[in-house]
Amino acid sequence: xxxxxxxxxxxxxxxxxxxxxxxxxxxxxxxxxxGLVLFSLxxxxxxxxxxxxxxxxxxxxxGAITVLIVYVIALLNFDQRDLVGKVTILKGxxxxxxxxxxxxxxFYVGGLYVKGIAPPPxxxxxxxIGLATLTRYLFPFEVISILLLVAVVGxxxxxxxx
Amino acid sequence: MKYNFRYGWWEKIYYPExxxxxxxxSRHFFSNLWKWITGRKGAYTYQYPExxxxxxxxxxxxxxxxxxxxxxxxxxxxxxxxxxCPAQCIHIVAGEDPNRPEEKYPVEFTIDISRCIFxxxxxxxxxxxxxxxxxxxxxxxxxxxxxxxKKEKLLHWIETELDKDQPLIGR
Amino acid sequence: MFLxxxxxxxxxxxxxxxxxxxxxxxxxxxxxxxxxxxGANRVQILGIRALGLFHIITDALKMFxxxxxxxxxxxxxxxxxxxxxxFFSALAVFAVIPFGSPIKIGGRIVExxxxxxxxxxxxxxxxxxxxxxxxxIAGWASHEKYALLGGMRAAAQMISYEIALGVSIIGVIxxxxxxxxxxxxxxxxxxxxxxxxxxxxxxxxxxxxLFLPAIIAExxxxxxxxxxxxxxxxxxxFTEYSAMRWGMFFLAEFVEVAVVAAVLTTLFxxxxxxxxxxxxxxxxxxVWHLPYWLIVIIRILTFFAKWIFGxxxxxxxxxxxxxxxxxxxxxxxxxxxxxxxxxxxxxxxxVIMLING
Lengths: 162, 171, 357
Fold this sequence. Notes:
The structure holds 3 protein chains of 3 kinds.
Chain A: H1 2-23, H2 27-47, H3 51-76, H4 89-115, H5 126-134, H6 138-160
Helix pairs in contact in A: 1-2, 2-3
Chain B: H1 9-12, H2 15-37, E1 63-65, H3 80-84, E2 90-96, E3 104-112, H4 121-125, E4 131-133, E5 148-149, H5 151-160
Antiparallel strand pairs in B: 1-4, 2-3, 3-5
Chain C: H1 2-34, H2 55-65, H3 76-81, H4 84-93, E1 103-105, E2 108-110, H5 120-130, H6 133-141, H7 145-176, H8 181-187, E3 191-192, E4 196-197, H9 200-203, H10 205-218, H11 243-268, E5 277-278, E6 281-283, E7 287-289, H12 292-318, H13 326-356
Antiparallel strand pairs in C: 1-2, 3-4, 5-6, 6-7
């Protein structure tokens, strides 16, 4: 009962802060609302018994990524008036893609909701996640690490340029 | 200045030197703590209003004028101290005493203690041993006027104001 | 059950806040004794000075009645919430730390930690990573260059050292084969070679040497207090704070000291484990049986003794070492602790493989 209520609260919080994130004009506020989105997602994960995932979500996304976003915004120190852009074709395409993604997700998640799937036993345990990443999902895992390595090398290259 | 010190491997592995530094501070901590626990003082601090530094026997502090047995100042207003004073902070007005026409006496004797540099030349110069110095260094006051020490104060402050925690010897 | 949790929360928060308040006194007095001084002792009530303990009260009083000055151009809301992040994250971290062995009350086993989580160690790092938001938001919201610099330094330092922290602790996770902090402590009660307690510091000495600087840096204490850096950037991220809002940062720092000491105790010094003390008594040249309640009390006292020693140790470190330069700090985090942490993981893996065959 309490868990169901909390899931609705966290869900509402996630949607609300997501909206606030894109509606706020001040980039720092957007970044902090983004942090709140991630935090409420972590809450939902925790309620779905995926404690490890929830904590990693907080550790990596709220504790590090949000802080890095705030860091970058503070370093760039741009004028807020520059952020109000004109309507361009690219933005139009972005809106269309986002809408399609949203409808897709709505159908998919709605379908799951109708079917009513239960998480498998031992769901979300740290050991299971570790086992899955190192056996079944080893290839995607390695690909992602290569991607991150490329990003790091690129960052170093850009930083060394001057 | 060229900094010539080069780190060897011992300093570069860092922890031994950190432990050495930590040993020094904790040695201080524990030896002082032990002193405090056993009722001794584990610090070099003098907690001033309650606890005063021991003063050297030839400390040169506030002046006072010496009295004769009959209660009059020994001073004969010879101006030796005022002439000698490098800070020119002694002001004397000499007068004649009709009872003792052989000697002058100071009608006014003022030391501007805010200008005094406590060199002690006035004490050295005095032929009559009429001015001496004490170990008292509590000179602060609220007005400039209070720092002009008049004759009466110089003659009598020592009886009431001086802390008697050290004997006045050889001054 | 609910009541027990409430009692435990009240106990832990009470102890932490008491420790934080006492630490303001300890900070002064310990530095004074180390540096051959007397230390703050002027506050007196009816002529009683009590070694300066009343300074805690006057400090609190001062912080409450001081003018809470908020500069004109600050972002009011962010300026207000920023001090709450480090304070509450530091308090919340303590939830997973066991301060005694589980006790049996009326057939029910009560864990002496607020929560026993399957991945308690991750919880610890996750919650302590939330503390970074405080300095960063404070630095940005203050609308002032020194505060911003302090916030930037805090963000860079704490994110760098989170990685160092995480990598250095993996060896410990591998040895005890769990993320559950309560289980880690329970496993530290075993004996190594039959005589040495299986504490973290004995099985993972390298991890301890890497973890210690990393967690002090995460705590932003001297010698890693560059975000404050009063000789360079006034007071860093809390330059524009005054009165109780500054007091929150101040108190958070001391709560963090207490929490860091507890974490060190739990992970590397055996938590509540008293050497050679098992559930049925001492195992030291024969078995010395002890009543169960006595063992529980000994274990709680052991935890507190180790905890207080840890706090003393951290405070002594704070009064011993000078501040690092910024490049030295980054070099230490990325070029020394991180590679050695990776080496430690490899070594631990090899040793575990050899032992398990």
